[in-house]
Amino acid sequence: MPNLLFGNGDVVINEQFKNAPLKEVLRTLRDNYQLKIAFTDKFVRDIEINASINNLNVYDTFSKVLEGTDLTFELVSANTVIIKRKKTELVEVASTFELTAVVSDAISGEELPYAYVWVNSRQQNIMANVEGYFSIPSVNEQTQLNISYLGYNDTLLTISDDYRNRRLQIKLQPNYVELEDVLVESEKETNDFKSEEQAGKFTMNPAIAQKTPSVGEEDVFRTLQLLPGVNATNEASSGLSINGGTSNQNLVLFDGFTVYHVDHFFGYFSAFNPLAIKSLRLYKGGFESKYGGRVSSVVDISGKDGNRNKTSGSLGVNLLSVNTSLEVPLSDNGATLFFSGRRSYTDIWSSSLFENIFSIFESSITEDQDAQIPGAVRSIRSELIPDFYYTDLNLKISTRISPKNHLSFSFYDSNDILNYTETSQTRYRDTLRVDTDKLGIIKWGNVGTSLNLSRLWNTSHYSSLLLSYSNYESTYNERATSKSVSRTEGEFESSTKQDQVNSIEDVSLKFDHEWDINSSSKIETGVMVSLYNNEFRYEADDSVLVDNSMNQASLLAHYIQGSFYLNPSFSFTPGLRTSYLSTTQKVYLEPRLSFLYQLNSSFQLKGATGLYNQFINQSNTKNVLEGSRDFWILANDKTVPVQHAWHGLLSLEYNKGGHVFSVSYFRKEFDGLLEYAFKNGSLITQFDDERRVFDEGKGTSKGLEFMVKRDFGKLSSWLSYTLSEVKYTFPRLNRGKSYFADHDQRHELNWYGTYTYKNFEFSATWVYGSGKPYSTFDGIETRKPSDDRGPTIGKLNFTEKNGERLPEYHRLDVSAKYRFQLGLGSAYVALSIFNLYDRENVFDTKVSVIAPADSRNRRNPIISSTNVALMGITPNLSFGIEF
């Protein structure tokens, strides 16, 4: 049974009104009894009231005052009332009334966005809005509702006439129970994630990240990677490769602002603190027209508002960082503050976990007899000494400034800083020794903030105005000196340097409006304007300018979409997004369509298709320090293309009694893909024309996904399999022939399982993937630049681009967590082991310049290709308290 605020509390009203204008009556009630009353002037104009109020509560007072008028009211809380006109279709049927409600957390009072409401009499799902609000135009005493939300117990509600004119406060209980003073999971099926009615859309419970085995930090993105179609074998990147797209083709939103860089620690976990996340929605493809600017997928995250009922918080520590959160109610009207902060202490103390992660940057590699390069490298010894830390924080303030208006401010900041020194010694054919010293600093971070004002005009209209700002900046500086000692030619010294700066600044204003026409029809529309400032500069070797660009652009977009139920079994959502980009001075049309067909109570068929455009591209510079050298650059359709894509998705799903089985087909066609010439962190290009910095190509991804999920109360498990192919075609690469993309993987199999026993939580994941492609090379050419200025350019000659495959990838991760009472709060201690059976997986191949070209001795650069190994068995210990 939900908790309902009937407003029959301590307020007792005694007033006499005779021929009194209604506006004056409302002011009297407001001033004398400290009520909050919202009304529109024209609704109450020319209405006189004759009423005797004797010892009545708020609800009965307004019932009597408005009796005989064409007005009604909605009791939002004990002292808050909204005056509105009666709907004509309800006047004639006295037994039928309009129901309004808000779904919230019973413990914290925080509203639950996008909760599902199943109307049994209509066999129809209704989704609450971002503030947990929903309305049903016509209900009666026979109507039954089932309200559900991930991670909460379902609530069955039978409508009563007592709910008339009252806004229900439906408070859902989290699906844990208090047993022997310790919080443990209930017998209810574990709502870890939910496949939504729209094809390709998933909603995930952020709390699942606390159960999933992790590398140091709890991570919602690592958990997403266990879903079908989301690549999980890219261990050194928490970025999401979804249905053949790359991570830079995903739109990642946090409280409405765009996050351009989503990882910490060079990709080993995401930069989103799970403590700060209230809800997360993933669109793998075919997403709605209200989203735009990316050509693959969408991750839409809503941050926590904070506890409305009491001050609460947490403090945790693991082998990498300290993590804390605080939630404070600021006032009686629902104003709240939420704060979370996380900082690693890796610059103070190097734990075993920290050293294991950084071990991939150190290697001692023996001679490769099969390498077809000038001579053979006998041995390489290198040592990397890092000084590194990362931080992130979230701050959010929310308040309800009036019965109809809600205001929230959200702030996010994430930073990673690495200072490093690297020394290496190379012996070449016993005749040459090269000693190299490197000194570098890498910084990257993302700042985002948003101010959101929303208004519930009435039960049919809802609007939101969002002002957002996002800034991503990365810098990379490296200095290297090499000393070559030759048995025949003596000594030779050289030095190189690299400087890279990249930033993207994004200021956006967005207006959205929802119109619920009736219980089976809904229209959504909105406009957005974004202003971008973008800088990219890369210099190498004595200020030789490789690339330099500073660009500004404005983007204007409009969308409209409708959701329509033709009958209880079939619904469809057509939409159109229109965009105008200032740098190209072109208009881009993006039609979208999705549908749902409920075959019966257990089976449903759903599909989606659409066109998509991306106006800012990220080029991936393949470097062993993954995550630091990628850069964003605005499209202009000259040197940098606008990306285009078409999506097609079709899915069949069975869901009954905790059993879920689904099979899905996807296909994505990409145009305007971008390749960057200097992919190995130096003046070595893969293009025949060394003056060419970017190249444009096309791509296709396609595949089949299978998923089986079963909940047994305390035991939950799912298994997913993806069969896919991703191929690219660039006219100036691989002699114009198609080749497999770097992230192509034919087979991937993921298993997840969790079990709760008393105060213990056990979980395990197993990931398998067939080998990803890589390129072998047969030499390097050196040539002078076309203008005869600057140093020589090296060009790698590949036998076939991505023509070989790395070894297959697999690993098993396990974790155990024990919860116990600690003072007035609770605590936990957890142990996780990554790569339990110590599988030696390979991340990638690295092309290195062992010795630069020596024109004096007519020697080409000496290069080597080596495998970059990933982490072996790695334990992590964590402890936390909650109050």
Task: Write up this protein.
This protein is mainly β. It has two domains: 160 residues, Sandwich (Immunoglobulin-like), CATH 2.60.40.10; 580 residues, Beta Barrel (Maltoporin, Chain A), CATH 2.40.170.20. Helices cover 5% and strands 59% of the residues. The strands form eleven sheets. It has a 22-stranded antiparallel β-barrel. A six-stranded mixed beta sheet has the order 15-16-21-22-17-18, with no helix packed on it. The chain has a four-stranded antiparallel beta sheet with strand order 8-7-10-11, with no helix packed on it. β45 and β46 form a beta hairpin. It starts with 12 loop residues before the first strand and ends with a strand. This is TonB-dependent receptor plug domain-containing protein.
The CATH superfamily of the largest domain appears as TonB-dependent receptor, beta-barrel domain
Shape: elongated
Percent of residues in helices? under 10%
Give the biggest beta sheet: 22 strands, antiparallel, barrel
Give a count of the beta strands, DSSP E runs of length 2 or more. 53
Report the CATH C-level class of the largest domain. Answer: Mainly Beta
Radius of gyration: 30 Å
CATH domain topology of the largest domain:
Maltoporin, Chain A
Count the domains.
2
Q: Average pLDDT across residues?
A: 84
Please mark out the parts with pLDDT under 50 across 5 or more consecutive residues, or reply none.
Answer: 177-189, 363-376, 622-628
The helix tally amounts to 6
CA distance, first residue to last residue:
27 Å
